[in-house]
Amino acid sequence: MDFSVVNHLLQSRKCTHPQAIQDVEEFASSSDLEKFTILSLTPLCVCLGSNYAMSNGGGGAGASSSTHLLDLLEEPIPGVGTYDDFHTIDWVREKCKDRERHRKINSKKKESAWEFTKSLYDAWSGWLVVTLTGLASGALAGVIDIAADWLNDLKEGVCLSAMWFNHEQCCWDSNETTFAERDKCPQWKTWAELILGQAEGPGSYIMNYFMFTFWALSFAFLAVSLVKVFAPYACGSGIPEIKTILSGFIIRGYLGKWTLMIKTITLVLAVASGLSLGKEGPLVHVACCCGNIFSYLFPKYSKNEAKKREFSTRVLSAASAAGVSVAFGAPIGGVLFSLEEVSYYFPLKTLWRSFFAALVAAFVLRSINPFGNSRLVLFYVEYHTPWYLFELFPFILLGVFGGLWGAFFIRANIAWCRRRKSTRFGKYPVLEVITVAAITAIVAFPNPYTRQNTSELIKELFTDCGPLESSQLCQYRSQMNGSQAYPAGSDAAAAPGVYSAMWQLSLALVFKIIMTIFTFGLKVPSGLFIPSMAIGAIAGRIVGIAVEQLAYYHHDWFLFREWCEVGADCITPGLYAMVGAAACLGGVTRMTVSLVVIVFELTGGLEYIVPLMAAVMTSKWVGDAFGREGIYEAHIRLNGYPFLDAKEEFTHTTLARDVMRPRRNDTPLAVLTQDDMTLAELQNIISETSYNGFPVIVSKESQRLVGFALRRDITIAIENARRKQEGIMLNSRVYFTQHAPTLPADSPRPLKLRSILDMSPFTVTDHTPMEIVVDIFRKLGLRQCLVTHNGRLLGIITKKDILRHMAQMANQDPESIMFN
């Protein structure tokens, strides 16, 4: 190698020590280019200044005390800094690594055009990944919705002119439809017409009943089988696990490509099976899988767990925007949903990129046009009647109902899921899914409001009655001809069809409440947005019709006299359905701001903000009176995930010494000393304990803290040293200091582990209130904290210790925290 390069290196480091120049020259002439490049990236003179001064200034004679340049080149050990499955990441260490990487890029970007291009690529990689994620999640959301609609209609019949058309698309071009029976056309054939050749009669009804149940069971069986065989993580909503992952917990494979593929396929099958579930929560999981896969294309995210989780928050916003846009046409509401409900860490930069991701996802959905109505939402509505002050009372009553429903559902569903975990019934997920699907299909078919797709049901309940509506809910007696029922506006006398529809809706309400409790948590993809909204919409529509008829028959009451004239459209039952849907969804998830924005984007009218706010806040207050946990937090606690909820307050007066380990009568804390342990002693400590890390102290006598070393890093470093270094034996001295201790001349080569030592572990004193410790863990994302007294190490507090302590203080089982 040319010595001019070596000389340039030394001058750039401002290094003039003659021994350093000699060593570097020898090293450059005898080593390959790769090792010399590693040397050039090492802050050489920082190492040389102290070590050469030590060796020349009487640091001790002999081979053990002299320092050669090769010992200074501590190459990164492969595997150090990574994490095992079901462990929590070290946010502080990961952030430090990212800052170091960023400084290195900034310092080199002025050296050449190539380095400047690399810095631009690094800066724009976040925007690029978010764009790709928005495109993928929006496209998948549209495809899932189109496929689910087609399979759902396949249970009732098939389009002869084009097999890939659903019922509505099949009749678009038909000229033989009538206003009363606009969904019937010659191109669409029911299974009874295809198999028996007849469309009416008992035989036709039984055949359609049988085929409806057959297809529902087939879709459910296929969905649960695919999940069980190929991707067990594809089941459920995914939001509880994603909240836990974003808080720093490692669940390998949960956001992988197999999970993405199986969840996409089985989500279509689960929705089409008719089970009481939705696709919005699973769509968030699908989009997070997309973001995780795309992030591996960029070293900025693939090599840093904390950066990946910060980015995952942006992915989640794109996912929320895509999933919520499919259901509600509310990309901004999706961003706020991520901020309010799911995100653990949400810096301002993430908000900007989330907004952009929402834009991309909404654009893709609009381009796909999955509903064929040139809108982002299936049940887009526009109301033309203003609300009146008196209506706040029924709106608040709907909020009370939503809060009560949310509290009841959370307790009942958690009790059933806990029973599933603790009994043999949970060992047969396929049988459970088939059983629930069979009951759902058999009970749902006779009632037209439970037979149809839940999204279609919500659309019908939200719709305002008018002359173009043929729904049974809009059969009012005409003002001109009171003897017949016509589709009319509101504030007309309800015909028998409306009362019949109300009875059917009441039965549908009871059915939906019961089946949603047993369905959420099955081993298939299952969301909760649509079922909760359907329950609220049914209750709201019933209340709306009741208030409407009350105003019609008693318009002279003082409540209606001033603002509701005879024959005028005063009450909008569809608005009550919308308010009820928001209240029930808020009662289950305890969302407030994002939920109001979602429904506001749904209606496009500012004047309905106040009723929505009143109902949603009432729902949250009533639900919080029975328990502050939403459904996702309840499932996190049920599964034992180590998640510190930022919304939960810690009001107890305990101190750090009350929570730290070791407790009284416990075995002493397992610690490492900085320079007087052998490799055999270190391996013995690792084999006899299961701790994730060990404090490093000066000596057993002083107990002065030096740092903290992770178990995984120690194991990897020992294996790497034995593989690459000669002379490492069981009686080799292990040291965590900068310089090797003075050893006899015949001693084996010592093992230096300083590179894996965290020299700035977070510490608190033993008298620190636990309220402050809990806040520190939440805001800094710590995995452990050391407890000291006057500088002496006393114990350690981990996130699991805090969760156990909080469970114990709440009179819950502290052993329910299953993971490390």
Query: How many helical stretches?
Result: 33
List segments where confidence is low: pLDDT < 50 over at least 5 consecutive residues: 1-20, 26-73, 479-490
Task: Name the structural class.
Answer: mainly alpha
Give the fraction of residues assigned to helices.
Answer: 55-70%
If you average the pLDDT, what whole number results?
79
Overview of the molecule:
- The protein is mainly alpha-helical and 820 residues long.
- 57% of the residues lie in helices and 6% in strands.
- The protein is built from 33 helices and 13 strands.
- The strands form 5 sheets. A 3-stranded mixed sheet has the order 5-7-8. It has a 3-stranded mixed sheet with strand order 6-9-10. It has a 3-stranded mixed sheet with strand order 11-12-13.
- Helix 32 (770-780) links the parallel strand 11 and strand 12 (784-789).
- The longest helix is centred in the first third of the chain and has 42 residues, at 113-154.
- It starts with a helix and ends in an 11-residue tail after the last helix.
- Residues 1-20, 26-73 and 479-490 have low confidence and may be disordered.
- GO terms for molecular function: ATP binding; chloride:proton antiporter activity; voltage-gated chloride channel activity.
- Residues 660-726, 757-815 form the CBS domain.
- This is Chloride channel protein.
Keywords summarizing the entry:
single chain, 820 residues, mainly alpha, three-stranded mixed beta sheet, 57% helix, 6% strand
